[in-house]
Each structure stands twice: as C-alpha cells, then as structure tokens.
Amino acid sequence: MIHHDSEHRLWVLSGPSSSYVLHLDDADRPRVLHWGPRFTPEQAASLLLRLPPLGFRPVEDPLEGSFDLVATGGLCYGNAGLQVRFADGTRDLELVYTGQRRADRELVLTYADRHYPLAVECHYRLHGDVIERHLVLRNEGEPVTVVRADSATWVLPRLNGYRLSSVRGQWGAETRVHRTELPYGETVMTSRRGVTSHQANPWAMVDDGTAGEEHGAVYSCALAWSGSWRLTAQRLPTERVTLSAGFGHDPVTWELGTGEELVTPVCAGLYTEGGFGAASRAWHDHQLRHVLPHAGELRPVLYNSWEATGFDVSLDGQIRLAESAARMGVELFVVDDGWFGARTHDAAGLGDWYPNPRRFPDGLGPLIDRVHELGMLFGLWVEPEMVNPDSDLYRAHPDWVIHRPHRRRTEHRNQLVLDLSRPEVGDWLFRTLDELLAKNAIDFLKWDMNRPFTEAGPDERLWLGHVQTLYDVLDRLRAAHPHVRIESCSSGGGRVDLGILRRTDQVWTSDNTDALDRLDIQHGFSQLYPARVMGAWVTDSPNPYTGREIPLDFRFHVAMAGLLSIGGALTEWSQAELDRAAELVADYKRIRPLVQHGRQHRLLPPGGELSAVQYLASDGAETAVLVFRRARRFGHADPGIPLRALDPRARYRDTATGEVHHGAVLLAHGLFPELAPGDYASALIHLIRE
Ligand code: GLA
C-alpha cells in the first residue's frame, strides 16, 4: 500500500514486511528517508525530525547519496543515474516536481526541467515487498541526448559495513557467487555485449557484512533487461551507498527527438530479513507470482538431442532417441541444432528456417507425429537472431546484419547478428517463426543466441532496438500461438534476467552439464532465480566437456534440483542405466511440485564434502531434500543435515523407507542420509507430514 502525507511531502510505500519512505525536499529532490523494516505512516513522518549526520567538512553535501533520482548538475559529484545533454550543450538538469498519480500499489512522481521542455516520470509499483521502478522521459523540445537513464537508484541506510554479493562467470561456468567488501568509489558491473551476458548478471545484493544464509538484512535489486546494461554500486567516503541500474552501457547514448518518449525497463528493489536464503526465496516468489507468464504450470521432463547427436540429425536417429526417452518417462522431446537449411555443421544454414530437405524430405511432420504418438510434446531449437554468411538469407540480404561501413564483419562461431532494429528484419523474424509454428505442431521452442554484438557502434537505435524487437516478436508469437512454451538460451546461461523471464518459460542454465560443476552454477543461479526456470540436463559419463566420470544417480539428483531434463546419448546407455533412469524420472515426478513451486532452502552450499538443498511445499505438508557428497575423507563421519521450516510438533514419514522422524529432531539434529560409501554419492529424501 502507498500512503501520502501531503503536508510533509512524504510517501510511504509498504509491503507486508518492509517500507520505503520518500520525502521531497525544498529543492524538489526525492530523498530516501528509509528503506528497511515496515513503518507506520506516523513512524515514517518522525524521520523528518531526524537531521542527517553532518560530515566533518562542510564542503561535503551531507545529503549526497540519499536521493532516488540523481540527475547531473549542481553540487552532485557522485554517480548520476540520469544524465542528458540538451541541444545547446547544457548538461545540468534542474528538475522541479510537477505532481503525482497514485493508486493502491502504484505511484508516479512527475518532474520537469525548469527551462527545457523535458519531463521525467518516476514510476513505482509494489508487488509484496518488491518495488518495481522505471523512468519515462518525454521530450517536447529540441532533440536531447540521453547519456544515461537508470531505471532506479536504490539508497541504502547507513550500515556498519557494506558487502556486495553478485555473480560472475564465463561460458560453461556461469553464475559463480562472489561476495566482497564494497570498495569506496564506484564498482560497475556491466554487459557491453548486446545480451545479458555470462560474465555478470544484472542483480546485486548488499548486506552489512554479517548476513548469512539464515540471518541478516539484505538489500537487493535486479534489472529486467536482456541487452547491455550497467549496475553501479557507489560507496561514498561519507559511507552513503547506492545501487543504480539501467539499460545501456558506456559510451552508448540515445537521441530523444522532439515529441519522443523513452521508457526504461524495470529495476526491482527488495529489502528482506532472514539472510541470503530469505532474500532468494522472496525473489523466487516474486518471479512465480508476477514475472513468469505461466508460473502455475509444472514444467515437463525434457529430452534434448544436442549432446547425443550434435549436428548429425536424422529422422531415424531422432525417432530412436524419442522412443528411448518416452520409455524413460520424458514428456517433452526437443530436437536441437542441425534440422534446418544446410546446417550440417556450424558454418552454414543459420537464417534458413525450413527443414533440411535431405534430412527431412517430408518435412518435420513424420517426426512430430511420432513424438506426439509416443505421448510427448515436441520442441525445436532455433537461433533466429543470427545468420551464417553461408546461408540463403545472407546471400539475399547481406545488409541485414549489424555492421558499420569501412569496418570488418567480425564472425563468432561463423555467424553474424541480424540487426533487429531494422523494421524489415523484425517483420521477417516474426513472419518466419509464425509460419514455422503455424505449419508444424510445435509445442516448445528453445530460442538460442550464441554470439554477442560487434561493430555495432554507439548507435542507440540498434542497442535498444534489438532487445525491443526481440521482446515484441516474443510477445506476438506467444499471442498468436498461446500453447507454445519457450526456453531462453544464449550459449547456455547468457540471457537470464527478469526481462526475458517475463516472456519465456524456462532457461538453459549452462552448456556445462558436468554434475559437479553444476552444483556451483546452480547455487549461484538460485540466489535470484527459481528452480522453476532452471533447465538441468543429465548427460553422459564421462562428461563430454570436462571428461569427469560421475555416477548416474548423482547426475540425476543434481538435475532434479531444477527442471529435470535428459541430454545423453540414450542409444548408448545400458539397459540397467535406462531402467535406473526411468526410476529416477519417476522419483522426480513425485517431488516435482515441491521443486518447481515450493520454497527452496540451501542447507549446505557446494564446495565442502557435503552439500544439500531442500524444497518445501507451500502448505508445508511435504519436503524433499537432495544431498550430495563429492568425496569422502577416510575416517570422517558425515554430519547431520538440519532441515528448515518444518513444524517442530509434526512427524514426517520418509516415503522410501517408511521411517518416521520428529520435526523437532529434524530441525535440531537433522537428517543422516544413508549415502553410498564412495565419492559422488547422493540421495533424495522425500518426507510427508503425517
Ligand atoms: C548453444 C546452446 C547449446 C546448443 C548449441 C547448438 O551452444 O547453448 O545447448 O543448442 O548452441 O548449436
């Protein structure tokens, strides 16, 4: 709910357990008086009587770093989330407050420059304790250059210390958690690649350095954008800290013409207590309630043929895999790369989205029919933003790719990026996929994007336009084919963010399917994103990427922590492996509602001898625990694994052994799962409240 105190020019935005208190000062600057535990309007108003601590030297503006809209100009020397250049070269913005629009959960504060006809709207929308913020800029004057327009600048209260949590990574090693004391100055996380990126992900969390998995206050924000982005964590010498995030990157600017409007993506902010675990659960809950298009659905068990066949795709080969997958209990069969055009290797065919006539002389129909006959849904891989120079599309439209005159066209994986900001390319993209979906009974698309931009230049039309067209095409395809579900992939986890998740149903977490590496990747992924979207495949052993040999059960149990999928060469699995896999798929189906819709507790992080993750049904009636032992040291007894969020007065029955445990004992002493003696031992324990 949103409370307004007009006398004091105060707004109190409150979720069930947090409040955000904003005050417009005499200079019309929106000062954040509080972001933290929930306050009543009266408690919030009392903050006005508390003067900010004055710095020792009067030359410091004691209020710098306490405004949620920071424009260049005046005595602002820190990071400004809003930076423009007017036609006459003026760079200072002098904003005056012009009014508000308010609804139950929405607030818009409007400002205008005191001279130039540029209006700025700050939009706030409450979803529980999550505050979604974005800006709208409207220009009625001569063209204005927008240098930076961050969706939000989050102001943290004065803490005893500041620790920044984020994820870093690379291809095959995405989302590695990184926690570090926030340095003084500006720490910038960014993608300049045109896509969200493997290297960094657009979210950050800050705590005072003492929070743990189960305790402590955490301030977090996440940007809903799938192109290049920038998140600046600023720590001033006066100990004021802000997190400011938006689309675009240095030195890309936008030209805002006369009569034009710029709407930024949403940046969401969240204050939580209860440690990183509670922060993650609140973000998961937010995505399940307010971001994902079909969050209530259970995602099917998927099979993907990529690791089994590579580019060697044939009708018979795919049917053999499909039959084997169906016997195992798979519900969605996905044909990956290699089914179209001249795509028999990675140097040809991208752009030609019709079935390879030699591989599928009668089109995809016979394969799709067989997959459906086997009782599975049918999915298909596409990478529609790309083109191989060796393709009919490129030969017909060499000018459709992102390029600059007099510059080389840098290829990456032998491919170039289509310039989706050109209307004719966007139209072609929609028409091509619309036709593919209309002509074939496709239930699922794996939408890939395997290379970042090059030679794009500082042309704002292109950087923003690409993502806007991508979103627009996804929205139109979903509307035209409402039964189709979409997976976002970008060489693995290169395009995972709250923007793409609003339009897709799951993501491909990483090309690295090594179960040991996956524990770290999934741990980092879960900091912000829910298991409900985290695609996880069981592949062959030794793993094709890392060469590591890991038992089948361990591989399955790791993949069960998200959307269980299978990606192995099933025709080479032994009958014993196929039979055991079918049992494990059945196990997953029993716990699937807990994993996909329940609440996740990271019991023991990966890295140590044992790691474990628990999922709890929303009504608390069931819980599933996945336990992994990487390697056992001789003479070392496994510790108990205390569970979370159980009813201490209840008893819980183990569905496999029938053993009954007291909730109080599980909470205090934990489970002692029986793990096989060797390395890579794992277990799934499913408990039901009696
Ligand atoms: C990317 C994806 C893989 C696979 C290949 C196909 O690397 O991440 O899962 O689809 O492309 O070329």
UniProtKB/TrEMBL annotation:
Substrate binds at W171, D336, D337, R413, K446, W447, D448, M449, N450, C489, D511. The keyword Translocase does not apply. The keyword Hydrolase applies. Gene3D superfamilies: Aldolase class I, alpha-galactosidase from lactobacil brevis, Golgi alpha-mannosidase II. InterPro entries: Aldolase_TIM (IPR013785), Alpga-gal_N_sf (IPR038417), Alpha-glycosidase_related (IPR050985), GH (IPR017853), Glyco_hydro_36 (IPR002252), Glyco_hydro_36_C (IPR031705), Glyco_hydro_36_N (IPR031704), Glyco_hydro_b (IPR013780). Its EC number is 3.2.1.22. It catalyses: Hydrolysis of terminal, non-reducing alpha-D-galactose residues in alpha-D-galactosides, including galactose oligosaccharides, galactomannans and galactolipids. GO terms for molecular function: alpha-galactosidase activity. Coiled coil: none annotated. It is an enzyme of class 3 (hydrolase). SUPFAM superfamilies: (Trans)glycosidases (SSF51445). Keywords: Glycosidase, Hydrolase. Residues 29-256 form the Glycosyl hydrolase family 36 N-terminal domain. Residues 611-687 form the Glycosyl hydrolase family 36 C-terminal domain. The active site is at D448 (nucleophile), D511 (proton donor). GO terms for biological process: carbohydrate catabolic process. Transmembrane segments: none annotated. Belongs to the glycosyl hydrolase. This is Alpha-galactosidase.
